[in-house]
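hey so i finally got around to running the thing on that chain from the lab meeting. sorry it took forever, my laptop kept dying and i had to restart like 3 times. anyway pasting the input first so we r on the same page abt which one it is
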Amino acid sequence: MDARHRGITIRGNSAQIAFTYQGVRCRETISIPPTKAAQKELVLKRQAILYEISMGTFDYSKHFPHSRKAKEFRKTRADLYTIKEAMISWLQRNQTKLQKSTLQDYNSAIYYHLLPAFGELTISELTASKVKEWLSILPCSSKRKGNILIPLRQMFDELYHEEIIDKNPLQRVKNLPTKTREPEPFTQEEVTKILHELTGQAKNLIQFAFYSGLRTSELIALRWPDVDFENNRIFVTSAYVRGQFKTTKTKSGKREVTLQPQAKEALLTQQTFTRTQNQTVFHDPDTNQPWRDDQPIRKKVWIPALKKANIKYRNPYQTRHTFASMLLSRGEKPLWVASQMGHKDWGMIIKVYGRWIPQSK
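ok and heres what got predicted. didnt touch it at all, straight out
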């Protein structure tokens, strides 16, 4: 071919078209019959490609649907790249960085909520108003809605910083306000009644929960090496979530907790059950195996005990509230209580437990 046809190389029954797209030199091979008419069409095709590139409308996958480059360049076109494609790609790139429980949460949010709602849209088609409208009819709590949006927010933030999009619509979608449940701590009389209905390992677990303030996931992750009887303390370093040990959620969550007398008593009694068997302190008394999660505790231990004691149901997290209100009511400093609870500062203590803090005269 003559100079007018530069960028095209004929090779038997195929031809190679060369062009530059987004600063990258591209070469694509296509099959053509060895005729002048076919070669003329090839010249027109390259001219069309160059024109579309100059106008910013070039769709690589439309011209070369089977090209590996097409898949890569598609990712740079917000008007062509679908949210489904981007979301799945984002998850694959980031899954090794995520805790197992977090990955499960993201998979649930992505495949059960985000993709059915927005998967077929291109990146550029998603707007803040579409997300807000969808949230308004999503049948779950405000907190859950916020959690569902997390992977979508992270993906769009990444697209924005990579300059694939100029504006991030998720920045205009604020998380809905969540209602903070008012603490309903148990009275000392109620605690006594509940513990009276329990025996053995079940009693040790619930007694320790009331007097240590640990979250259930922290309780079932506690190991004997974390217990320091000599210095009257335990070390909270991990949580057991969905069958996996993980580090505490925040830096302040990793903490040293002073053993209250009743908590120490529960641990001393528990030694006879698990100290020589396994490093995990608390076990399911029915199987003598470590607890898998908090649900069996609630169903097999907590609910039956409250029913027998004829006490109004409150969830097991109220043992943590009971611990905090007990310490504050007896005059312990809020900052110290915050450290025992695993809060980074005492702001949360004042906000949630302010009415149990004695007023100074």
